[in-house]
Amino acid sequence: MGAHPVHRGEQVFRPRTVRSPWATVLAVVTVAVCLLPLGLYLYYGLVHSRLHYRVGPGGLTVEMGVGRIWIPAAEVAAVDRWEGPGPAVRVVGAGLRGLQMGWYRMGGRRVYRMTTAGRNLVYVDTAPDAATARPGTRYVLSPADPDRFVTLLRAAQAGEWAAAGAGGDVVFDPVPGPGVLTDPFLIVVLAFTLSIAIGFPWVLSSGIRGMHFRVGPDGIAVHHLGRQLFRWESIRRVERLDQPPRLWRIFGAHLPGYYAGLFSAGPLGRVRVYGTTLRPPLILLETSRGRVILEPADAEAFLAAVQAYR
Length: 310
Hints:
Structural class: alpha+beta
Strand order of the largest sheet: 6-10-11-9-8-7
Mean pLDDT: 90
């Protein structure tokens, strides 16, 4: 693309046009990664709001809105309160203030935890030969009434449900705890990641599409997410660069079809770079504020405009 006359006698030079999918791929991947915390936030919020324990003559069901854990009474090997399990170390899963869900190491053994607090804990062990439940597993739960929970599940285990006088199934709510959806830490994380998910594609698109250079009476202006003017009195030299040094990014964009930011350029030192391919010929500006490399599509027309205005 060549030069285009605009107001105040300026001429506009745009970088080479490059069609590359990499900027789009990067934007899509970044958005997907940044939306992952939102998905986990909603998932664990749903689990926390729906979590309860149902004990009946047939056994124990842990219901959580997105699935359930079913342990038949005949496969319950042991059930009791767990007053002092010691430090809990999360192996994999959620470790939020209001929800602990997943595999933990507690009391020297690996357990599966579905709790909302660290108090009123009970454990339920499954038989080593369990066919329906996960065999040989210890589940850790936090019913609000742990004593009655243990009594009823033991009655179901022994086949004495009628003697317990409970009637039908009994539902136990978990110990009340901090709300997952109102956790300040999670809200801060979401605000940060969603800002990136929304802002990054916009910055990427605006940076690529809006990049251009203007040569006019006041100097050379670089338009990239704003306007940076290098006045003629601050420009020491403008020259064609046919053999640019190898560039190493320090800060900014370094993608096929989009180069913008601060780079290390070998003998040139640190330079600001604005272009799309970095193929010569390029334009090197020596200014009182440092060196700048530009990539107008028509380098000769750019130099001719510089000569005309200087």
